[in-house]
Amino acid sequence: MTNKVIELAREFCDDAVEIMLVLNGNFLRQFRVGEESPRFDKEQVFSSKEIDFSKMEIHRSIVCNNGDILFTLDIDFHDKQIQEGLALAKEAAQKIEDKFPGMFLWSFSGRNIHGHAYIRYNKSNEQHVVRYGRIYDFCKSIIFFMKNELYVDLDDVMYHYKGTIKSMGSYHKVTGLYKIPITLDMGIDEILTRSATFDYDEDYKIPDLDVDLIRKVVPIYGFDFKKTSYMPNTEDKVPVDMAKYPSCMLQMMNIKTKGNKIRYDLLRYFFFLHKKSDAKKVMRLICTTEEFNHMMREKQFDMIYARNYPPPTAAYIEGEYGFPCDRVHPTILNTD
Question: One digit per residue, pLDDT tens: the chain, 336 residues?
Fold first, then answer.
C-alpha cells in the first residue's frame, strides 16, 4: 500500500513548485518565501523511510515549475454524511462535465470530488487570460460562472500564488479514505470501495483546459478579484539595489545568453521584489537589446507579470543552474 501511495503522489506532485505535508496537525511546506525556515526536496521526502505515507495528508502547489497552473474544481458538501455528500458532489460534477465534456480529470479526495485541468503557459492562452486580469482572476471567473450559471457550489480559496490542493494518494484522516482518480460513471459504493482499498486506474491523464473555449463561454465580470488573490501591495516592493541580491541571482544575471527559461526565472524573482517598472529597468540593463526586444515583442514580460508567479527557490536555482545560494531563500536581501 505505502509504495503505491508514494508512486501516485510522486507522479501527481512531480511538476509542483512545492509540496506540503500535514504532520500531527502542523503544515510543513517545502519553503516559505522570505523566511529563514527549513526547506526540503520533494524526491528526498518521497524517498524517506521515516515517513508513513499510508497515513499522510499531502498537498501540492497549484503553480507548476514550468509556469503552468493546475486548475482544480473543489466540490464539497461538508454538512452531509459522506454517502449523501458524495452523491450531491457527483451530481454537480456531472453538470460541469455535460457543459465542458472531457475537460477535467475527476478524482475523489476521500471526502469530496475534485476536477483537474492544466492551464498551459503559452502565448495563445495568455492573450485570453490577461483579459480577465491575473491568472488567479481567470480561475475565479470560471468558478464564479459555474456557481451562477450551473448552480454548483465550488471553493476558490486556493487561487493565489501560494495556493495548494490535496495530492493524489493523500490520506483523509477523518474518513480514512484516499484521494484517487475516478470516472463519473462509477457508483457511490464503487468509489468508496476503491478509495478505501486504493484501487485506481493507473493510466489516468490530466487534460489541458481549453482556454479558447472557456473565454467564449465565461464572461469578464469586471469584479476586483485581485483583492482576494493575495497580491503583494506596491508598498511591499523594494527599490532595486543589486548589491543586496544573493550570489546565486547575481550569477544568473551574468549568464551571457538569456533565453526564455532564464528570463522567466529572473522575471518572477524581480516581480516579487520590485515594481513592474523597476523590473523592466533591470531586465533592460542585464539583457542584450535583441533579448529585451524579443521579450517585449512576444509579451513574455506582461505574461509573467499577469500570472504573479512565486519567485524561484534556492534549491531550484542550484538544481537548474548549478548556482548555490548563500541564503535560505533568494528573496532574503542583504541588509548590511
Answer: 578 888 898 899 988 888 888 766 666 655 444 444 445 566 767 777 777 777 888 899 898 888 899 999 999 887 788 899 999 999 999 999 999 999 999 999 998 999 999 999 888 888 888 888 788 889 989 999 999 889 888 887 777 777 889 999 999 988 999 999 999 999 999 999 999 999 888 888 999 999 999 999 998 876 555 444 444 444 568 899 999 999 999 999 999 999 999 999 999 999 989 999 999 999 999 999 999 999 999 889 988 888 878 888 888 898 889 999 888 788 888 766
Exposed, middle or buried by CB within 10 Å (0-12, 13-18, 19+), for 181?
buried
The beta strands (E) that lie in the chain are given as 19-23, 26-29, 57-61, 69-75, 105-108, 113-119, 164-166, 180-182
Tell me: do 211 and 273 sit in the same domain. Answer: no
Is residue 17 one of the residues assigned to a domain? Answer: no
Same domain, 194 and 257: no
Q: Is residue 167 part of a domain?
A: no
Q: Is residue 44 part of a domain?
A: no
Domain count, the chain: 2
97, part of any domain: yes
Residues 93, 192 within the same domain: yes
Nine cell digits for residue 249: 541571482
Structural domain containing residue 207: 70-158+178-227
